[in-house]
Specification:
Layout (H helix, E strand, L loop, with lengths): L4 H7 L8 H9 L14 H9 L2 H15 L3 H33 L6 E5 L2 E5 L9 E5 L7 E13 L1 H4 L4 E4 L4 E2 L4 E13 L5 H10 L7 H31 L3 H12 L4 H20 L2 E3 L4 H7 L2 E5 H5 E12 L6 H14 L5 H9 L7 E8 L4 E7 L10 E7 L1 H4 L9 H15 L4 E8 L18 E12 L3 H10 L3 E5 L4 H10 L8 E3 H5 L3 H10 L2 E3 L3 H13 L4 E5 L5 H6 L2 E5 L4 H6 L2 E3 L7 H39 L6 H22 L10 H37 L6 H34 L17 H18 L1 H6 L7 H24 L1 H6 L3
Parallel strand pairs: 9-16, 9-19, 16-18, 17-18, 19-20, 20-21
Antiparallel strand pairs: 1-2, 1-3, 3-7, 4-5, 4-6, 4-7, 8-21, 10-15, 11-12, 12-13, 13-14, 14-15
Amino acid sequence: MIPSSEAAVESRSAPSGLSEAEARARRARGQGNTAPPRTGRSYREIVVENVLTFPNVSLLLLGVALVLLGRPLDGVVSVGIISLNVLVGVVQEVRAKRTLDRVALLTRPKATVVRDGQERPVAPEELVLGDVLVVDAGDQVVVDGRVTGDGRMAVDESQLTGESELVPKQAGDPVYSGSFCATGRAHYVAEHVGPGSLAGQLTTGARAFRRVQTPLQRGVDLVIRLQLLIVGYVEFLLLVRSLLTETDLATSVQNATVVAGLVPNGLYLSISVAYALAAVRIVRQGILVQQGNAVESLSNVDTLCLDKTGTLTANRLRVEGLFPASAEISTTELGRILGAMAASATSQNKTTAAIAAAYPARPHRLVGEVPFSSDRKWSAVAFDDADPVDGPPLRGVYVLGATEMLRPYLDAGSDGAAWGAIDAQTRALTGQGLRVLLLAHAPTPSLDGSGDQPRPPAGAVPLGLVSLADELRPEARESLAAFSRAGVRPKIISGDDPETVAALARQAGLGPELGLVSGPQLRGMDDAALGAAAASNTVFGRVSPRQKEQLVRALRGQGAYVGMIGDGVNDVLSLKAANLGIAMQGGSQAARGVADLVLLDDSFASLVPALTEGRRVVNGMLPILQLFLTRIGTVGIVILSALVVGEFPIVLRQASLVALWSVGVPSVFLALWAQAAPVSKEGIGRRVAQFVFPQVLLSGGIALLLFYGTLLLGPAHAGMLGRHLPEAALRSLYAAGLPVAQTAVATFLVLSGLLLVVFAVPPSPWWVAVEQENGDRRPALLAVALAAAFAVVCAVPPLASLFALSPLGPAEIALVGGALAVWVVLVRSGWRSHWISRFLGLD
């Protein structure tokens, strides 16, 4: 006997689950779930990773040695500047962590648990063994368990197995934490909680913090490692020299500290801090950064793929109209059938919610169901009502889906004129930007939805069309225009009809002439044709999730840097395939789980200022990288060259001053003043090499000549005047001239470093060499201000003594000025002639 409607509804009701008292008792017995693993570093890890680096520890030990050897000022100045850099980095990262941790709470996976017969959302750590949980399409499975009840679903276990194929689940089948419900709805009982299960251990490892280096970070890491090798070799040379020349221990330690300071440990710290601060600023724009490299990725995006529903539109559907396929069925009857389908379906989505709101109905007993799938673009239910109370019996299979996807399966004997009317009506509605679905019916209530590829029943005939309107987001037009101005090409990729998508794209301001391609057309293309279609068209409709992924990969294969915005399970594959995956906060947990960025306010308009911020960060890091490497290379070459001749050209406190004045202070302001111009497609490494190599070679040679020219000025001048001094007196004069020569070199390095700031950010055409004219005069004014401040330091005896600067006479000042003039001419002409670049093959 067929059960009554009330009995049918009861049979489909959810299990009552545990009571709150039972849940508390089980947690007291140690059967509760644990909090999800943290996704960021702890405060201790931040401090350790910033402080206990090899260069920092080495400099600290050398500073302590200097203090013990009677040179406390040298040790304090050197270690003090390093400590200041570390302190700034730690404070900034801690502030960034606190902000991001607060916001990250919004994107944690949630669970829907059945307690005392009622469904309610809870945090995963509130679950206990034996809890009954509910998952809908897009929800994440948060603990290991087993499906119970009559619900069915298809699960994406790719984050556990690496396989993208959906796995069907029904009563008795196991489900694992870290997987996602792609279609359907089901209940499952928690069988393993906490870290005890294999799946829990896998997802803990997958979700725990991992440092994914960006291309810029990888390049910097390589530079630091190479520099460590070079510094280690130079330190060895210093040790040998000290033993051969019987240099006193304090001087040897001081020279070793100068060389150790060449390791650019602050460079990687600068990049990390810049990204952390950018992430905090982006949060204020409504975007959560889930991967550290997302800031850099965002700055490189030149192609932005958008899913229409929920991204370009607000995903608030409403039924616009019903259009019966023949006179045999009325709009009232069409609405009654649609309402019954929406009320009875176990898998709910925005479409069924809109239909249920327009045509309220009671649920009917289902004898079969195929949940909606973005791959199939249709859903179906089977009714066998014997004694309906609200109209004629609902018996047979009712299928609702895209017209072009259902037409191959429908009754081929249907009247051709009727099909013509359906097609014409569909084109007219989609041309208005409406979503159009076809309702078809087969009289036999037999529907097999258990296979991997279910098909609509044979003999189904069209009943009519339903059109739904989706609201265009108010910020869509302005945001797309801003992306176009920033050089970013939009691509609209959707599962809806191409004409519907194109109509909405035109409303959003993408222009009247839009190339559009449908999923069935893409299906017959080879890789070359697919790539050409992806590049030349803007609108892609009726595409499957797999085709979305293929389009993203095709664009990347042509050299595009692709950002993908999505909100549903059907977007997960394409989000993974893109250079940058962006999810909506209001979308599915699956999309949020694989995304690099999450739009907290569900508006892609917030990407416009975030794109600006990302470009600003990368453009700000380029001159900082150039200045760091130039200072390291120049000082290193000067030291190596001087060691060949026999004198150490700079003392520890002077080296600290050069680093602070020519790199430390300018870097802070260059990062703040960075502009949001498009990131050059020319590699960062190539641009840095073009900037650094000519300058380092010329600066090193000129500084060495200046050092020995100033050093010999005193004794040579005495000889020219006929003062035939004894050798001991000449040695004394030579020793007295050494601090002056070292001061001249330090002065030259500081002033040439400040001039490099102007070359790195050219304010006018005359300063253009490697980088394009910037037009911002603030860096040039900063260089002038720092040069004036340096003059004050040299003129005030206590400050000069603090940095071991000796007074320079007119002759020495003239030598430094002449060296700077020659340096400017040679470096500028060397950059413009590209002789080093051609030699290195960089041109």
